[in-house]
Specification:
Helices cover about 30% and strands about 15% of the residues. By secondary structure, the protein is α/β, with parallel strands linked by helices. The longest helix is centred in the middle third of the chain and has 26 residues.
Length: about 500
């Protein structure tokens, strides 16, 4: 018998010689043993080889509340592990200081003001705009559209907050599946008679009754794990947008009990919410390992904006809170982990943005961009290596409040109030206004800001009544310092 001669070889010929039988058995046993070893160590064998991408978004978390960013009061070992085994960015920013515009920037990879998404989703009447037409422009491609364009399965889980109308549903915005709610917040425990924005949806069907919900953060993670299992043999993109730790401040009693020594009951419950979210991120990561997908999954964790005024969060040394252009309103934790490709324990000072998540995902999968879709973000896979690879300028605008950062310099402009200029390298707390000392720097940065604004659309709807010009003016004044003072101007 000639074993490798295809013309003369037949299956029966293999077993005419007993030595061949033994060789065959030995080979099969060896292969099965190797497969078993690979599975044991979480290495994919027969499944897809293209990387999976999971974007995890937390909501209204305090910059100083995450262990890897200096927090000491709450236990966040799983988020910290992502940083220890990946890249932690120290100059990361949301593209807006409030929820909905920030998410629009992340989902589009663009400054959301380019398509008129300047304010939060608002119930305030806007002339010529029906309430159901307030949302992310349907002509703008989302990160899910890009991933789907490149053959990926796409899943959105959790808080959407990109418009209540049917045309804004995640299933119409590039996602194959959706499990979550359309609005900006909802209770964490089952509710009866929920109105549309707070209703829990499974694809486009309402989940009724909600008895299956234990605690929403846990339920969202259950669904994420289910989708990981479902798509374990094909590449997928998952957008897991927890509503934790946004109000209402609710947590399981057993977790609140862990923080019984914290005097403030609001802070105690908030820490329990963050603890629970971290625990569930750990559950998801462990399941990736069980499925053999961990090594080749890019995980990006980010907060949507700074700490809120009303949820007990702590921004540490950062001045200001959600809704402001102070660092406490826009600087956020951002972590990237990809065991198969990225080094461990890297800290990067590159200036990066939530807008960068889309181009990062496209580069990770070696994908193609959708033609004629503008992207303002840059890939984190390049920027983490050198400060010079990050953004040279980043811009913000919401109503009368505008800001620009260029390297260590930051400028804040609010209508006709005195211009604010800070050197963040020397003054991260934004205590010393240098505008009068460096007039040429102010002039240059104002020019850049004005040029950027020329490429923006006018806001398509009005801001909420609370987010008025007077509140914007007051919260950006140098003498308004601290949570109590800023809470007067939500």
């Amino acid at each position: 018998m000639r074993f490798f001669n295809k013309k003369s070889y037949t299956f029966n010929d293999t077993f005419k010689d007993k030595s061949n039988v033994m060789f065959y058995r030995f080979t099969c046993y060896s292969i099965l043993t190797l497969v078993n070893i690979l599975f044991t160590f979480g290495i994919p064998v027969f499944g897809q080889q293209h990387p999976n991408v999971i974007v995890i978004l937390s909501d209204d978390g305090g910059y100083d509340d995450f262990g890897c960013y200096g927090g000491k009061e709450v236990y966040t070992p799983n988020i910290d592990a992502l940083a220890q085994k990946g890249v932690r960015f120290q100059s990361a920013y949301a593209s807006a200081s409030v929820c909905a515009p920030s998410r629009a920037g992340l989902l589009s990879g663009r400054y959301q003001q380019r398509f008129g998404f300047e304010h939060n989703i608002s119930k305030r009447p806007t002339a010529g705009v029906a309430p159901e037409d307030i949302g992310m422009d349907t002509q703008v491609a989302t990160i899910a559209d890009f991933m789907k364009y490149n053959g990926y399965k796409t899943v959105a889980i959790g808080k959407w907050h990109q418009g209540d109308g049917p045309q804004f549903n995640p299933l119409k915005r590039g996602f194959d599946h959706f499990y979550g709610f359309i609005g900006g917040d909802r209770p964490y425990f089952p509710i009866q008679g929920a109105v549309k924005p707070t209703q829990l949806l499974y694809d486009d069907q309402r989940v009724v009754p909600e008895d299956s919900i234990r605690y929403l953060t846990e339920t969202l993670t259950d669904k994420a794990i289910s989708y990981v299992h479902q798509y374990r043999s094909q590449p997928f993109f998952m957008y897991l947008a927890f509503n934790a730790v946004h109000t209402p401040v609710e947590a399981p009693l057993k977790t609140i009990e862990k923080y019984k020594n914290v005097a403030d009951p609001l802070r105690r419950a908030y820490l329990a919410m963050l603890d629970n979210m971290d625990e569930n991120i750990g559950r998801l990561v462990n399941h990736l390992k069980q499925e053999g997908l961990y090594e080749n999954t890019l995980i990006i964790f980010m907060n949507d904006n700074g700490a809120a005024t009303n949820n007990g969060a702590d921004n540490g040394q950062l001045r200001g809170l959600k809704g402001s252009k102070w660092e406490g309103g826009i600087r956020v934790p951002l972590i990237m982990q990809w065991p198969a490709k990225l080094p461990k324990g890297i800290t990067s000072d590159a200036m990066v943005s939530g807008m960068d998540i889309l181009p990062t995902s496209i580069e990770a999968i070696k994908g193609k961009k959708i033609p004629r879709q503008q992207i303002d973000g840059i890939s984190l896979l390049s920027s983490y290596k050198d400060v010079k690879n990050g953004h040279d300028y980043l811009f913000w605008r919401r109503g009368i409040a505008r800001a620009v950062r260029h390297r260590e310099w930051k400028l804040i402009v609010v209508k006709d109030d005195p211009i604010l200029l800070f050197n963040l390298r020397d003054d991260l707390r934004e205590q010393h206004n240098l505008a009068t000392k460096y007039p040429e720097r102010v002039k240059e940065m104002l020019h850049k800001l004005t040029e950027w604004e020329k490429g923006l659309e006018n806001p398509k709807w009005l801001s909420s009544v609370l987010d008025n010009d007077q509140n914007q003016l007051m919260k950006h004044r140098m003498d308004v310092v601290g949570r109590a003072a800023e809470r007067q101007y939500p």
